[in-house]
Write a structure and sequence with these properties.
Layout lengths: L1 H24 L1 E8 L7 E7 L2 E9 L8 E4 L1 E9 L2 E14 L4 E7 L6 E6 L10 E7 L7 E5 L5 E7 L4 E6 L2 E9 L8 E8 L4 E7 L11 E6 L11
Parallel strand pairs: 1-7, 9-15
Antiparallel strand pairs: 1-4, 2-3, 2-5, 5-6, 7-8, 9-12, 10-11, 10-13, 13-14, 15-16
Length: about 240
């Protein structure tokens, strides 16, 4: 009798795991990036089939959410000023989330000519011997750039990256010391990013924010981020 109960429990656990995996497979994974230096913090709402869910609450400039699970399907997207739903910044119809996809939605340009850029991402790294790094060029009106690994004889991590584009590379675990330079040149160094390490089996993003000639809040900078999925963070339970 105990054996029957044990095997029955194992069977139920297996079925539950299979059901959970099936449910996860029907999701896409979405994150939001606020790259408009002169715009306030934002809220984001997704609507589908008459139901609305707030997925982001008060994301500030340079804010990057984790990837959140979103059921595959089409949504209407409303982006508003934080705590002021009547102050609409974006109203997008029919935004599609595909099953198993990883998507970065970035608010770009300046407030007067604001736009949304949608990146189809590579997803989370599965190579335990390498670190995956994606660089996103979100610095308004900045020229194409190269990212050079200073400690690897200035090897190009990303080459000729244009505004509103991204580039992904897998590298050996290392301490990051990157120089951002105009494409095809060694100087001037627009920005140097150092003092962080990347580990095998993990996924990272580096975002270029701000303006080359900007000051204070709008100054050019690189912001590193370790990419993760946080289930339920987009409001879907």
């Amino acid at each position: 009798m105990k054996k029957v109960l044990l095997f029955g429990a194992i069977g139920l656990a297996t079925l539950s795991l299979a059901a959970a995996q099936t449910m996860m497979a029907k999701n896409g994974y979405v994150r939001v990036v606020h790259a408009i230096s002169d715009a306030p913090a934002v809220d984001v709402f997704l609507s589908s089939m008459g139901k609305e869910i707030q997925t982001v609450d008060g994301a500030p400039y340079t804010g990057v959410t984790p990837y959140g699970d979103v059921p595959a399907g089409k949504y209407d997207v409303l982006v508003t000023v934080h705590n002021d739903k009547k102050a609409v910044l974006f109203d997008v119809k029919g935004f599609e989330v595909k099953e198993g996809s990883y998507t970065t939605v970035a608010a770009v340009n300046l407030a007067a000519n604001r736009a949304l850029e949608v990146f189809s991402d590579a997803g989370l790294n599965k190579n335990k011997d390498k670190a995956q790094i994606t660089v996103y060029h979100l610095s308004y009106k900045s020229p194409n750039v190269d990212a050079l690994a200073v400690d690897l004889k200035n090897a190009k991590v990303v080459s000729n990256l244009a505004y509103r584009k991204s580039g992904t590379i897998n590298v050996s675990p290392m301490g990051v010391n990157l120089n951002v330079v105009p494409a095809g040149k060694m100087t001037p160094v627009v920005y140097n990013l150092k003092g962080i390490s990347v580990a095998g089996g993990k996924t990272y993003s580096v975002f270029a924010f701000g303006l080359l000639n900007g000051k204070g809040k709008a100054a050019f900078k690189l912001t590193p981020n370790e990419d993760k999925v946080v289930m339920g963070s987009m409001g879907f339970k």
